């Protein structure tokens, strides 16, 4: 990847805003758009869930069916891929909406469906991201299967060794002879059978716990891998909105360039944006689980009311934190572009001239579909242009203002 010269790199680092300054911008944006943004977030989650389940539900039935063939599994994979594409299209529309909110531009709830409206322009980029997600998932799935199979083999060998040692050291007892001599032998054998059943049930419970632990660990590792790989492509949606004619690989490259030395700053901003809402949501979630575990039969009405209360607290704080964390992306994107445009003036380096075009497109986006909706903005920009022209050519303006009578 191309990097900036040393002096330009130093200027770029100096021009970047601090996390506190970015939080101030984020808080101002969220405060001004909280109601509309929350409604758009709910609509996005509902639409992508409902439409996604149309593909996910039959795919799940095919995968869990014991008689599924290879063709059935391929068909299930295609259905899951379609669900991923739909999810990315809705995510693109929501990111466009919050980007325009960050820029204080005109927005409507219809921007949630912006990816479907600009489907021909958007689908190549969406398919590229979806293929990358699928490739990462397949690679992780293959690697995790290999690792887990080796671990299970080692566990099986250790279990066999333990069983053999127990068999060798266990004393042999003739229960038939003992039952003839002692009438209590039958009772002992029946109690032994019940102990064996309890041992079998405990083994099943331990197996289920092991499966859950393995699944949780694998899911955590997969999510961490997704963050590490895709954090550098966090600005692809915004760059595509500002440069709709650019190809997908160009935007991936530009996003990685903008994220240079910004990945940790973005993660820090996301966590700080969640703030106390994120902490309260996590605490309420675990309190709900703990109370529900102690009141499984629902006999204690007080604990049931507490569960409802903590569910409400979790719902409010979780969605507020999620919305604030979403806004961290366009705020960081704007700051990265501003830092780039500042060093252009100092270095005149051709390496980052493409970021200048992206910045100008973001500051003055060409949006013919909004011209009818916001005529005041176009009027104001026209007046500003006219004013700037008059300031640049004062002599010409004064000459034009001379009347024909004065010339005579």
Description:
With 408 residues, the protein is mainly alpha-helical. The protein contains 15 helices and no strands. Helix 3 packs across helix 11. The longest helix has 51 residues, at 119-169. The radius of gyration is 32 Å and the shape is globular. The chain starts with 5 loop residues before the first helix and ends with a helix. 22% of the residues are buried.
In short:
The chain has 408 residues and is an all-alpha fold. The protein has helices at residues 6-15, 19-64, 70-102, 114-117, 119-169, 175-181, 185-230, 236-242, 248-258, 263-294, 301-347, 353-363, 375-392, 394-400, 404-407.
Largest sheet: none
- Overall geometry comes to globular
- The helix tally amounts to 15
Q: Helix-strand pattern, N to C?
A: HHHHHHHHHHHHHHH
Q: Please state the average pLDDT score.
A: 75
Radius of gyration: 32 Å
